[in-house]
Amino acid sequence: MQRVYRQRVSMKNPVHCLALGFGSGLIPFMPGTFGSLAAIPLLLAASSLSPTGFLLCTVLISVTGIYFCGKTAHDMQVHDHGSIVWDEIAGMFVTFLMLPLTVPYLVAGFVLFRIFDILKPWPIGIIDKRLHGGTGIMLDDILAGAMVCGSLHLISMLWPAWLLW
């Protein structure tokens, strides 16, 4: 069955390539985790931007992702197929808004983002079930990223030494 979906997408199509996280979403197990990992080199490349530049980059990734994910899901004829991971990339960018991209933050942010994305605590689960199309695919991961971002900011205020190891 997986082969049928793959026949409907092409890595030569730039929209599909981006939605599939440059191919990371095609890994047959834990595609969301590999999509989140694919975000790390992009995050490191964007780390040289000013805070405003990083925010604008995050907004651009998120807004264009609505189209990329929606179009690819339509072409695959499956809503939010696991191989569509641009939403994880956008969620990781949201996770690190106004945070340093140091190893402790990257590890904590990655682990927390995967937990929030998998468990889908309220209201993420509701959004995941009720919204469809590109917006639905993107919004639950953007919200998960926002919740992790808030959590990391809170941790850094309450226990600043914890993220300095």
TrEMBL record:
Q: What does the UniProt record say this protein does?
A: Lipid phosphatase which dephosphorylates phosphatidylglycerophosphate (PGP) to phosphatidylglycerol (PG).
Catalytic activities: a 1,2-diacyl-sn-glycero-3-phospho-(1'-sn-glycero-3'-phosphate) + H2O = a 1,2-diacyl-sn-glycero-3-phospho-(1'-sn-glycerol) + phosphate
Name all YutG/PgpA domain ranges. 18-155
Keywords carried by this UniProt record: Cell inner membrane, Cell membrane, Hydrolase, Lipid degradation, Lipid metabolism, Magnesium, Membrane, Metal-binding, Phospholipid degradation, Phospholipid metabolism, Transmembrane, Transmembrane helix
What name does UniProt use for this protein?
Phosphatidylglycerophosphatase A
Q: Which GO terms describe its molecular function?
A: phosphatidylglycerophosphatase activity
Q: Which cofactors go with this protein? A: Mg(2+)
Per the UniProt entry, the Enzyme Commission number(s) are: 3.1.3.27
Where in or outside the cell it occurs: the entry states: Cell inner membrane
Which pathway does the UniProt entry assign to this protein?
A: Phospholipid metabolism; phosphatidylglycerol biosynthesis; phosphatidylglycerol from CDP-diacylglycerol: step 2/2
Organism per entry: Alteromonas salexigens
According to its record, how does it sit in the membrane? Multi-pass membrane protein
Taxonomically, which superkingdom? Answer: Bacteria
Q: What is its main location?
A: membrane
Instruction: Spell out where the chain crosses the membrane.
Output: 48-68, 89-113, 142-164
